[in-house]
Amino acid sequence: MNASLRSGLLRLAPQIAALAVILALCAAIAPGFFDISFANGRLYGSLIDILNRGAPTALLAIGMTLVIATKGIDLSVGAVMAICGATAAALITSGYGLPATLALTLATGIVCGLWNGALVAFLGIQPIIATLILMVAGRGIAQLITEGVILTFNDQGLIFVGSGILFGVPMPVVLWILIALAVGLAVRFSALGMLIEAVGVNRRAAYLSGVGTAGLLLAVYALSGFCAAIAGTIAAADIRGADANNAGLWLELDAILAVVIGGNSLLGGRFSIVGSLVGAMIIQSINTGILLSGYPPEFNLVIKAVIIVAILVLQSPTSRAFLAFAWRKRSSASQEAAGQQPAPGRQAS
Amino acid sequence: MAAERALLEARGLSKYFHGVTALDGVDFDLHAGEIHGLLGENGAGKSTLIKVLTGAYRRDDGRVSLDGAPIDPRDVMDAQSLGIGTVYQEVNLLPNLTVAENLFLGREPKRFGLVDSRAINKRSREILEGYGLSIDVSALLSTYSVAVRQIVAIARAVDISGKVLILDEPTASLDAAEVDRLFAILSDLKARGLGIIFITHFFDQVYRICDRVTVLRNGRLVGSRPLESLKRIELVSMMLGRELESAESGDHGRASEVRGEVVAAFKKVGKKGRIAPFDIEVRRGEVLGIAGLLGSGRTESAELMFGIHEPDTGAIEIDGAKTSLGSPRDAIRKGFGFCPEDRKQDGIIDDLSVRENIALALQARRGWAKPLSRREQDALADRYIEALDIRTSDREKPIKFLSGGNQQKVILARWLATDPRFLILDEPTRGIDVGAHAEIIRLIEELCAEGMALAVISSELEELVAYATRVRILADRQHVAELEGEDVSANGIMRAIAAAEGDNTGEARS
Amino acid sequence: MRILKTLVGAAALAGLMTTTALAADMTVGFSQIGSESGWRAAETTLTKQQAEERGIDLKFADAQQKQENQIKAIRSFIAQGVDAILLAPVVATGWDQVLEEAKEAEIPVVLLDRTIDAPDDLYLTAVTSDLVHEGNVAGQWLADKVGDEQCNVVELQGTTGSSPAIDRKKGFEQAIADHDNIKIVRSQTGDFTRTKGKEVMESFLKAENGGKDICALYAHNDDMAVGAIQAIKEAGLKPGEDILVVSIDAVPDIFQAMANGEANATVELTPNMAGPAFDALEKYKADGTEPPKWIQTESKLYTQADDPMKVYEEKKNLGY
């Protein structure tokens, strides 16, 4: 267990290093970046903001990691966020209680996920196309629910669930960490993790070995929808309203990026939820850093793109192999035994 | 014929892929005005030979000459301009262009810098009329049948190249009338002096159209023979790699006096378009051998027995009770296991470790909620790594880094871990090294002795004879015979196959 | 039945307002873009209300964001022989032909909300707001409010590169140019959305000493302001007091915030484009008065003193 923990950390070394460098850069441009204070009954500070603002991406990345591990992709999560936010707002404003509202909202997310999963598992539609359907249609559905307006609500219960403070920590942070733990433990302490990886690497061979591939695919897409439902609830509670046009807009791409930055292959197979979460935090740190920097907004996307390209280049198999080589050469000069290098990324062949 | 100089001559061609020898010093001659069949089982090296000749691969060793002059085509285009044209099974034309555009793609006659479509339409009509085909050449290729597309592809290849025409399984998706038409065209081209290489695995077509045949096996040349003097059974023996022996080998030891109880019975089980209805009983302590040429329906039979496809006729009884197999999952629950023929596509999970590959089927049967603990998985992996002598540095090594033979042992271990009652092995020894080969055969014998029921599909007749209690003979997607006791011999199997293939000459195949 | 109703209505109105006596017979076609935003929906509602009040028979056509539908609608209005056409054009180009046809049929066309690239003799007038002016009004209000005191402003821009973002920024900067005490210290895009408005405001607060150094927030639309107000509250400051909040659009939700004392002022982008359009048409029909080619709608400033709750109630049902 200890050894596998260590090898896991070793695998994530580039991601953790990238996060550290970005946080250091943020601290350089924004003095007091690492300060955390306790005021008004809550923790307050830029680091807390990153954890808090990164919650939707982190949640989506949890579901996305498993979907991608099965060699799939879920483009619909942003739209599902909008649908679920709209559902929550519509239910709470039409007098449903908080438990009923939450239950129906989560159920909506799961149904959206099952729809995607059914298209992939039973009809054999390519995941990118199957989920594109809901990505395009989803915002329309959300607008039907909100009747085209930003549906505001003032229910303190729903606001607390999505953006309140629990023991000084913002609820979004509590939610994504809890769900990450639950999903992480579930896949590693049951056989799900191994079966999902088997399906992702070779679906046919897994099927021939008796793996219930259809059920697994349904389950991972449903989980992705569930995560999107929670993210959608958070996004709605954040502004006390459901904005069908903008909630979760392009967030599916951030989630995919988080998974990739986390060192997971889009070709499926081996996955690391922790890696994806670090990826999500990297993306949010960049966003927060840009906002704190005070540069004109015209530069936002350029800065973001440059940093992300740099990270992806650094963790590409080629540059990893090069770094490993350079490291071995240097250490063999002093002594021999470069030791076990982090395994270079899977060859895509 | 032997006196005249060859049109295309290859000597000592070799090709290696990552240390694997795909083609090993193969000689090949093609004469002008000859249709030359190229035969061999899957993986024999037919397509590698073709790709080397057409420049799709660069050869690693040997030489090729055309009309006496040495050639070394860099790519397919180069080979085309030298005079070697190829038509593949899936026609390599563009269905969304017109027939004429396809004929002249990449070499369109230009007028004022623009494609002169009137000229290409006119020329196309003339060319195709030479093949007895009068169609609207300005219509999209996709509006025509596969047979017409095939002819267009041939016309294009001949028009561009004009010396050597290579046809890779051209008849696979044609009906009998279309095959006749194609053969008429080939005879015509032959009369015009072209050399034609014809790849197929339909014996009757070989005998109908070819003058000579070259057989490859495991990347090596088995022989090149004129067909007039070649008996069907000799051709079968060339392909299956065993010389006819005059004496029957008597080492077939499994007398079938003690018959175990029936584990599973398949009664009139069949599926339209895949395999004709068949009866099979499998018994404890018995190996059922399944023999037949490529495409005879061996794998298709196994797929019905393992629930990969659901039969549309017949009934399945397991332990005397009627049941149905809707998926491999169902079959595994009944205690079945299946080692597929295509290890890479259907067997290994290449990125996962040896341990996970071994544990997979057992874990899948237990369900996701009842995980094998890491300790149990380790113990399982270690046990089979030792028992089957799987050569791996450790159990966490991704299976893709193992050799073919060791991968096969891991797949066997995956099934043995589920403690199956009935194990189906499809070509268990294909493409693996000699040592592993012998070990797998010994394993099959041991499992049988322990009382397991096995069905083994193999093209290795010696092997089948060594371990099979009974041998089922398949041809043309039908179960045609079953050999038992004294009849189970390499010669017996070959005779049965040759007889069946002969019987079916001329029938339309799908 | 409808004729009777129109007649009765017309007679009643004629009795009340002699100036609109002629308009009572007017039939006007309205080609609307669609209903992509709350503001657009409110514009539709208000146009229908205005027509009803004036006894105008309004023929409404929703183009669902497609120019071809608008052209079809205009042709059908011409065929029906309407007295005038209102057009909210979805794009700027490609109108010449169909407007030519309207001109030949002697039907005046009034553009609403957006202008087009076409010779201006093809339409009677265009009724639009002035984006630069809106920013100007907001800036002016802030300058008046703070007087000579030092004031650091943070700005939430609209979507980078969009014309409202560019023009509203320009107008505001013009208004504060002569006031050295007012300075924009941070400016970042909030994409016109509440979520981004809130997130960006959080970072402004962090960057400016927990918000203590910020005197006012200027947001290019009310939605971003509503999000930012949340952020200010969560940072433990009082929006409207510790940080002044001024924004543009005057959507209903900002009036609620003003009623709570959390927002200070908003500049209205009025959805009532039809009112001035009908006024001009009525005059034109009555005695041929040519209106100016551009009728600028009023950019009305609302503050907490304007009974925000009452405005909220009025606006609530317009479909925002």
UniProtKB/TrEMBL annotation, chain A:
CDD domains: TM_PBP1_transp_AraH_like (cd06579). It is a multi-pass membrane protein. GO terms for molecular function: transmembrane transporter activity. It comes from the Bacteria. The chain crosses the membrane at residues 12-34, 54-70, 77-98, 173-195, 207-235, 247-267, 274-295, 301-323. Pfam families: BPD_transp_2. Keywords: Cell membrane, Membrane, Transmembrane, Transmembrane helix. It is found in: Cell membrane. PANTHER family: ABC TRANSPORTER PERMEASE PROTEIN YPHD-RELATED-RELATED (PTHR32196), GALACTOFURANOSE TRANSPORTER PERMEASE PROTEIN YTFT (PTHR32196:SF19). Its main location: membrane. GO terms for cellular component: plasma membrane. This is Monosaccharide ABC transporter membrane protein, CUT2 family. InterPro entries: ABC_transp_permease (IPR001851). The lineage of its organism: Bacteria, Pseudomonadati, Pseudomonadota, Alphaproteobacteria, Hyphomicrobiales.
TrEMBL record, chain B:
InterPro entries: AAA+_ATPase, ABC_carbohydrate_import_ATPase, ABC_transporter-like_ATP-bd, ABC_transporter-like_CS, P-loop_NTPase, YtfR-like. It is found in: Cell membrane. Pfam families: ABC_tran. One of its GO terms (cellular component) is plasma membrane. Keywords: ATP-binding, Cell membrane, Membrane, Nucleotide-binding, Repeat, Sugar transport, Translocase, Transport. Residues 8-243, 258-501 form the ABC transporter domain. Transmembrane segments: none annotated. It comes from the Bacteria. It is a peripheral membrane protein. One of its GO terms (molecular function) is ATP binding. Belongs to the ABC transporter superfamily. PANTHER family: CARBOHYDRATE TRANSPORT ATP-BINDING PROTEIN MG119-RELATED, GALACTOFURANOSE TRANSPORTER ATP-BINDING PROTEIN YTFR. NCBIfam families: YtfR_transport. This is Monosaccharide ABC transporter ATP-binding protein, CUT2 family. It comes from Fulvimarina manganoxydans.
From TrEMBL, chain C:
Residues 1-23 form the signal peptide. Residues 29-272 form the Periplasmic binding protein domain. It is found in: Cell envelope. InterPro entries: Peripla_BP_I (IPR028082), SBP_2_dom (IPR025997), YtfQ_transport (IPR054837). It comes from the Bacteria. One of its GO terms (molecular function) is carbohydrate binding. CDD domains: PBP1_galactofuranose_YtfQ-like (cd06309). Its main location: other. One of its GO terms (cellular component) is cell envelope. Belongs to the bacterial solute-binding protein 2 family. This is Monosaccharide ABC transporter substrate-binding protein, CUT2 family. It comes from Fulvimarina manganoxydans.
